[in-house]
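pipeline: protein-struct stage 2 | run 1193 | Hercynine oxygenase
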Amino acid sequence: MKDLQELGTEDLREHVATELARTRRRSAQLTDAVDDADLVKQHSPLMSPLVWDLAHVGSQEELWLVRDVGGREAIRPDIDDLYDAFQHRRADRPELPLLGPREAREYIGTVREKVFDLLDDTPLEGRALVERAFAFGMIVQHEQQHDETMLATHQLRDGPPALHAEPPPAAPDEALPAEVFVPGGPFTMGTSTEAWALDNERPAHEVHVEAFYLDTTPVTNAEFARFIDAGGYRDPQWWSETGLRYRTKASLEAPRFWFRDGGRWWRRRFGEIEEVPGDEPVVHVSFHEAEAYAAWAGKRLPTEAEWEKAARHDPATGRSRRYPWGDDDPDETRANLGQRHLRPAPAGAYPLGEAPCGARQLIGDVWEWTASDFLPYPGFVAFPYREYSEVFFGSDHKVLRGGSFGTDRAACRGTFRNWDFPIRRQIFAGFRCARTPLPDER
Ligand code: AVJ
Ligand code: FE
């Protein structure tokens, strides 16, 4: 599929139904994999109990699709407050009188039945909220984003493995250049046409980006281990002032889930202990660690505009693509998305996903920290609610791009913007470096 612009109304309805069902199967898989005690337990103060995410997904669906789009009567107005993410901090959620696992499943099932019912007689035009089925797309993406959050909760959970998946494809046996060159000039950032793009991705606007070099692939575990071995965590010269304070306070010495034994690095990954694979992109590092590594390597993190230009700009046409490989939706030959694998693929994998500039794995594998604060594009309009993006704009959050192995394709695009606090490490985040050309390299 290229974009929803091309679909007729009935095909669009069918697409919505398929996406809703596909998404619900993933939520079920993540929550059926553990028992009730596990569902109500808080596995980390950073996360909600899984049963909160589950009912929250239903609550948002009730608010937007059942009540607003469908104009139907409220199903459970009494629980609106419990599942309003702005009312209670994650750490406090286990103490709330939440729906239990059985009630939560029943509730989201009831909401979904009403949604399938109203989908048939909702006009998919006329009102901005339903134009090209936007509200349905927003709810699909919302549930998929919480599914990724639940996957992060699984990673934090103690105990034997509960999730299983095939290993990702190997990288082809070829020598890739360490860096690719992106010539300077304007490109179109963001979108005004992608039907299900969220408010913060809009509108499309021209940005001038100076020439830069970008790492061909994300930084690997082996590369990151060299930074550790070189004393990178202990040397203040690589760290920003805030990064240094955080590193000291949190006693950071390695990526989250890593430990040293017998002179080697090991990690816990979804309940399995394994030696850290050198060829995979590093994951579970904070922005501060990424920034320190880049300084140590004599480089820097790419800005968000640099990242998007590398991922989307097609120098042959001057157009920005939907994805690095073109306008077609992601599939398993192009990117490691959708929890098909429970780990990033080795650096250099997915040659079919390569961008025009030659960079690989921009989409999928690991979210990539950028140097940029999460700010609105010129002409930004909050839609349909301020609490999705607008209240998070500012210097507290850094932008991440590209999606991870745990991101669904519905919630991942060349324009998609994720954000988090620069200290966060439980998300599936890694990074790649950029640098400004030296005078004789221009
Ligand atoms: C875009 C991933 C930062 O999980 O906080 C979920 C997505 N917004 N529910 C988050 C979101 C409302 C959001 N992130
Ligand atoms: Fe949410």
